[in-house]
Amino acid sequence: MTPETAAAYQHESAIEAEPFAGPALESFAAVRRRFDVLLWLSVAWLALITLASAFASFLPLASPNDVAGPINVPMFHDFGNSLILGTDSFGRSLLSRSIYGARTSLVIGVSAATAGCIVGGIIGLLAGYVRGATDRVASFIIDSVLAFPALVVLLALTAILQPQLSTIVLGLSLLSMPAFARLERGAALTYAERPFVIAARSYGTSRLRTAFAHVLPNSVVTMVTYLPTIIAALIVAEGSLSFLGLGVPPPTVTWGGMILDGEPNLASAPNQVLVPAAFIFVTVFALNVLGERVRGRLDRRGRG
Amino acid sequence: MTSFFSWKIARALGIVLTVTFLTQGLLGLVPGSIAAAILGPQATAAQVNALNAKLGTDRPFLVRYFSWLWNALHGNLGSSAVNGQSVVSAIRSALPVTAELVILSVLLALVLSLVTGTVAARKPGGKLDSAIGAVTSASLSLPPFIVAPVLAYIFAVQLGWVPVLGYVSLTSSIGGNLQSVALPVIAIGLPEFAVLQRLLRADLAATLGEDYIDAARGRGVPEGRILARHALRPSLISLMTATGITIGRLISGTVVVEVFFSLPGIGSLLVRSILARDLIMVQGCVVMIALAYVLINLVVDLAYSLVDPRIRIQAVA
Fold first, then answer.
1. Tell me, what DSSP letter sits at residue B165?
2. What are the residue ranges spanned by the domains of chain A?
3. What residues does B79 pair with on adjacent strands?
4. Torsion-angle region of residue A250: left (phi > 0), alpha (psi -120 to 50) or beta?
5. Is A156's CB within 8 Å of B286's CB?
6. Beta-carbon neighbour count of residue A11 at 10 Å?
């Protein structure tokens, strides 16, 4: 079999293996027809917050660590100088701090999830395709790590390495790795027995090349559909750490740190806590909605 | 059957040993020496050496690990390098607080999810189902460190129903104790409720489509009885495992909530020790949490396989 016919065979069998059954086709079309307001609101928010935090320095915002106005300004009291959401007990603009905080959360969440996805994906691919002892060792490690409360691992890590951006990204990517590894292992297992993979092996492709060139491109979809959900979980984990005072230290602005700072003034100036809390909630919610919808559409194996 | 149980127990022991080994290994990663980390930058080299000798941290790694393990097996986890308190006694006084929080929030999540899950599964896609679904999908995105301040603002600051901070022990006043843990329990239990409710609802909705449910309806069994006896029973098994799994996240949740509401549990102890760089106490707490966690999962695993023999057969095969 020439590579061309093998490729055609691969394409064909991939379709043949997963035909759109009646009900699936129907629901797929139904999803297409109905305009999903929640999904588009979520996408709009994520786009807005990403762009705003990426280009924060070009926006007409007060610097997040500078005194921008009087202290403890309530919400919607003053509209000038980006004080619309009020100020904290140092007179720093809450709007500006929330947007710079988004930068920290998004950078940490996205980079840790990407790193976890790549490393975990390779481990899962090898475990699921090579099988045997590799699989048993990898699975035991994956299960052991997943069997342990994530925040406690992170706390232990920060106790030992000083909390800073790189430590936290490292810790979070280590935490997300087993989840990706397990997802990729499951997907690789199902693709390893597909006719196109067996065909590739039979005309002499090496095991490693088969794994990366034939199994990986097909099974990677499963991991990608979980990316938004895992980014959301990592943003929550980073927020918990910062809230405990063990996250990225100041002057870097973090949402969790803002909640920690505002907590003593909860009675007199609740906006200092509620504003960052709302930013975290909306962002995490939007990521969860996006993840759920993407899974519903792309992952034909159904919800995981 | 015996081989299945012993395999599970051996595995749990293996995980606990791995965790203790890794924690000890992590302590080895401390830049400089443990004594230097505890004493801070002002300490002289002589002070550091003296403390290292006292803690035994100048010995080789494996010697340190096995002597720690030997002591741990004899109920001695060492004592705090900061205030000299014994780790075991610190954990013993903190454990009941955390245990109470975990038990109450699991109960809250279970009761709420059983009620709303059954109601929602009755008419999948109905108004009530959609409303509950909206609440649970929002709750999934509400981590305890957001819920805790918001609840404190509404119920403690605005309404004044419960005190904001402080812990009343169960032995001094039952009512006072329940008041002081009410908000923490809601903050911890809310996301877990969402997870369990969604699972139960999906499970129940699928079960309600089975033939034997139609058969029961055909026999004229009342709808409420079908739900409670015929449909709910098989779903309870998966609910049980899910509860075991959620306890992992619950433990993370208690750390944050204990710190926010100043409750003297394991979570506060852990965070306080980290901030004070009291690494021996940190090690003790982490090992304790791991032990509790593995034990809970083991019990759930074993109970699960007693209820449903198919699990046992699959796991051995």
1. S
2. 58-303
3. B86
4. beta
5. yes
6. 11
Tell me the chain A residues in contact with residue B274 when contact means C-beta distances shorter than 8 Å. 155, 158-159, 246
Please tell me the CATH superfamily of domain A58-303, with its number.
MetI-like (1.10.3720.10)
Closest CA to A176 of A221, A109, A240, A79: A109
Domain with CATH 1.10.3720.10 in chain B: 87-275
- Per-residue pLDDT tens for B43-83? 777 777 777 777 666 677 777 788 778 877 777 777 777 77
ipTM: 0.79
> Cα–Cα distances in Å, from B26 out to B273, B284, B287?
16, 13, 12
pLDDT in tens, A208-222: 888 888 888 888 888
First to last CA, chain B: 12
Judge: A246–B289 Cβ closer than 8 Å, yes or no: no
Domain B87-275: assigned CATH number: 1.10.3720.10
Q: Predicted confidence band at B38 (pLDDT cuts at 50, 70, 90)?
A: low
Q: Up-side HSE of residue A7: CA atoms within 13 Å toward CB? A: 5
- What's the N-to-C CA distance of chain A in angstroms? 36
Q: How far apart are CA B70 and CA B64, in angstroms?
A: 10
- Among B144, B274, B297, the residue with its CB nearest the CB of A246 is B274
Contacts of A157 in chain B (CB under 8 A): 26
B79 SS3 class: strand
Name chain B contacts of A150, Cβ cutoff 8 Å. 248-249, 252
Give the rounded distance of the alpha carbon of A227 from its chain centre. Answer: 5
**Which DSSP letter does residue A91 get?**
-
Nearest chain A residue to B284, by CA: A156
Q: Which residues of B touch A245 (CB under 8 A)?
A: 275
